[in-house]
Amino acid sequence: DSGVTQTPKHLITATGQRVTLRCSPRSGDLSVYWYQQSLDQGLQFLIQYYNGEERAKGNILERFSAQQFPDLHSELNLSSLELGDSALYFCASSVVGTGNGEKLFFGSGTQLSVL
Amino acid sequence: AQTVTQSQPEMSVQEAETVTLSCTYDTSENNYYLFWYKQPPSRQMILVIRQEAYKQQNATENRFSVNFQKAAKSFSLKISDSQLGDTAMYFCAFMKGEANSKLTFGKGITLSVRP
C-alpha cells in the first residue's frame, strides 16, 4: 500500500456528463500529481499541485481542471465527457514536489468509463 | 523533449529464472533520473528501482537490478529468481534533474512468470 488513496475506484458515466475524482496524498506529502493512462496514449502527465498551488501543467484538456485543498487532498474535475476520456486516472504524491529525481508514490487509480 | 522506448511488448519467464527487460531513452540532458515502475493486475503503480544518471554504480533492490549504460542511453531491468508475483506490466520512466520536472513513461512491457 503506497499510502495514496483514490476514490472512487470505478466510475461509469455518459457522454456530456461531469465527474470528480478524489485523491488523498501520503501523510506528509505536499505535492500531488495527476496522470492519465489509456491504451493509445499510455501514461500522460496532466497536472501537478504543491501545497495548494498549481506547479506544472502537462497534456491536460481545457475541459479538465484540478485543485488542491488546504488539507492537501486533490480533486480532478472532468466535464463534457467524451468517449475518448475513458481511461485510468492516477494520482501520485511526493514530499516536496520539486522533481529532480524525487520519488513519486501512486494510488490505485480511478477507472473511468464513458458510455 | 525526452522520449522513452520499450520495444518489447511482452516477455515470459519461468519461475526462479532470470529475465531482463529493455529500455532506451533519448535526451540531451546530462543530469537526470531513471525509474522502473511495476503495475500488477491490481493496477497500482509501484516503484521498483531508481537510478541517478550521475552515479556509475548500477542500482539494486533485492532481486531487482539495473544495467545503466549512459553513453548508449540504455536502462535495462534484471529480475532474478522470478516469482509468480512479478507478473505485471513494467514501465521505464525518465525525469530531468531539475526543479519541477515530471516523469515521462515508456509504453510498458507485459511480463508473465510461468509456474
Descriptive account of the structure:
The complex is a heterodimer of chains A (115) and B (115). Chain A is globular. In chain A, 0% of the residues lie in helices and 52% in strands. Chain B is globular and about 45 Å long. In chain B, strands 2, 5, 6, 10, 11 and 12 form a six-stranded mixed sheet that branches. The model of chain B has no long low-confidence stretch (mean pLDDT 94).
Secondary structure: elements and pairs:
The complex is a heterodimer of chains A (115) and B (115).
Chain A: E1 5-7, E2 10-13, E3 19-24, E4 31-38, E5 42-50, E6 53-57, E7 64-68, E8 74-78, E9 87-94, E10 105-106, E11 110-114
Parallel strand pairs in A: 2-11
Antiparallel strand pairs in A: 1-3, 3-8, 4-5, 4-9, 5-6, 7-8, 9-10, 9-11
Chain B: E1 3-5, E2 10-14, E3 19-21, E4 24-26, E5 32-39, E6 46-52, E7 60-61, E8 64-69, E9 74-79, E10 88-96, E11 104-105, E12 109-114
Parallel strand pairs in B: 2-12
Antiparallel strand pairs in B: 1-4, 3-9, 5-6, 5-10, 7-8, 8-9, 10-11, 10-12
Features:
heterodimer, A: 115 residues, 7-stranded mixed beta sheet, 4-stranded antiparallel beta sheet, 11 strands, 52% strand, B: 115 residues
Shape label of chain B:
globular
Number of E strands of chain B: 12
Task: From the alpha carbons, calculate the radius of gyration of chain A and give it in angstroms.
Answer: 13 Å
The proportion of residues in beta strands of chain B is over 45%
Radius of gyration of chain B: 14 Å
- Series of secondary-structure elements of chain B, N-terminal to C-terminal: EEEEEEEEEEEE
Multimeric state: heterodimer
The CA-CA distance between the termini of chain A, in Å, is: 31 Å
The helix count of chain B comes to: 0
Structural class of chain B: mainly beta
Q: Percent range for helical residues of chain A?
A: under 10%
The helix content of chain B, as a percent range, equals under 10%
End-to-end distance of chain B = 41 Å
Q: So how many helices of chain A?
A: 0
Q: Report on the biggest sheet of chain A.
A: 7 strands, mixed
- State the low-pLDDT regions of chain B, or none: none
What would the average pLDDT of chain A be, to the nearest integer?
A: 93
On the 0-100 scale, what is the average pLDDT of chain B? 94
